[in-house]
Amino acid sequence: MAQRSPIVDVHHHALLPDLTGGIDLGTVDIPPWSIDDSVAFMDKTGIDVAVLSLSSPGIPYADPARARDAARCINETFAAYVARYPSRFAAFATLPLPDIDGSLRELEHALGVLRLDGVGVMSNYGPYFGTPFYDPLLDALNRTAAPVHIHPRPPVLTREQDFGLPPSLYEFTFETTRVAVQVAYNNVFGRFPNLKLILSHAGGTVPFLAKRLTYGPQIVAELKGKAPIDTIAELGKFYFDVAMVSGRFTLPALNALVAPDRILYGSDFPYMPVADILEAKDDVFDFTGYSGEDVRKIASENALRLLPRVARQLNKR
Fold first, then answer.
1. DSSP3 helix / strand / coil % (the chain, rounded to 5)
2. In degrees to the nearest 10, what's the CA dihedral of 57, 109, 194, 126?
3. What integer is the mean pLDDT of 18-38?
4. Among the CATH numbers 1.10.10.10, 3.40.30.10, 3.20.20.140, 3.30.1300.10, which is that of 8-316?
5. Confidence band (pLDDT; 50, 70, 90) for 21?
6. What would the pLDDT profile of 161-188 be if each residue is shown by its tens digit?
7. CA–CA distance, 150 with 240 (Å, rounded to integer)
8. What are the Amidohydrolase-related domain coordinates in residue numbering (predicted)?
């Protein structure tokens, strides 16, 4: 019998309300979570390794000192989980953004001392990720070449603007799209070519809007000097996780935009019910547009290129 390909889950949340002052996603129910819940879920669904990241909305504290302390505690908690289960977990470090100086220091500690596997950021902290505000951090991330997972968070909306619906229902997809457009139009990959940016949820609406985004210079003259020379190629420099993705509706568009070597498996545990996670997983791995080799890339090979410590751990099994 052929050995099955391992599965690496790059979109897997650790819920740490005691360290973040609670989690508020509007009307979304916050599920209970523990690291042992994650292990049980992974065993049930055949996931070999999960990369832990903080849930939206991230660290909510406006006070920089409090945010720095929270980020340090979160990252030390992540490191402890990885040390407890070194062959099952990796972790994306949390930064105390929008505090750039504090984030640069925490980045050095998280990657250099705690040896975490990458960085997790939210779509916006006021300024959107990818705008020039973040250039000092992007420069540091470029030098580390560590993967950066970008997760949406609720935009600033009035009650009338959100229609009384949770932002995660549809606004999250637009948040991810806003980041992708900022990165493309601010020449982030051109200026920081070692960046490895992962967009959540198949890039939000990016695959659907990709062609439309190429029309900018034709529609708005002032964009002629700012728009990417090749917008489609620029969007193809992202990695895309497939958390909460339906094969029938989303994968054809994503498959048309990027090759399978840019796609990563993600579950969105614990927010998605296990039955829905399994259905979405089957949608991806059984998608007719993917060959067996493509599925192996999406399941783990692409992620393992970004996560060398995890690759070494799997090789020890």
1. 50, 15, 35
2. 30
3. 72
4. 3.20.20.140
5. low
6. 656 666 677 778 899 999 999 999 999 9
7. 10
8. 8-308
Half-sphere exposure of 148 (CA within 13 A, CB side): 26
| Averaged pLDDT for residues 47-53 | 98
**Amino acid sitting at position 235:** L
Amino acid at 296: R
Assessment of whether the complete model's pTM goes beyond 0.85 = yes
Tell me if 87 sits within 8 A of 314, measured CB to CB: yes
Residue 127 phi, psi dihedral angles, 5° rounding: -65, 145
Helix extents (H) in 85-134: 100-112
> Exposed/middle/buried for 254, CB within 10 Å: 0-12, 13-18, 19+?
buried
Instruction: Specify the pLDDT at position 191.
Output: 97
Report the alpha-carbon distance of residue 148 to residue 199 in Å, rounded.
9
Q: What are phi and psi of 209, to 5 degrees?
A: -95, 0
Tokens of 79: 């490191």
Q: What is the CB-side half-sphere exposure of residue 199 using CA atoms within 13 A?
A: 32
Instruction: Look up residue 63 and give its two tokens.
Output: 């006070």
Location of structure tokens 């070519």: 193
How far are the Cα atoms of 151, 152, 239, 253, 293 from residue 203, in angstroms, in the given order?
Answer: 10, 10, 9, 11, 22
Domain extent listing, the chain? 8-316
CA separation (Å) from 117 to 6, 69, 95, 248? Answer: 18, 20, 13, 32
Contact 79, 109 (CB under 8 A): no
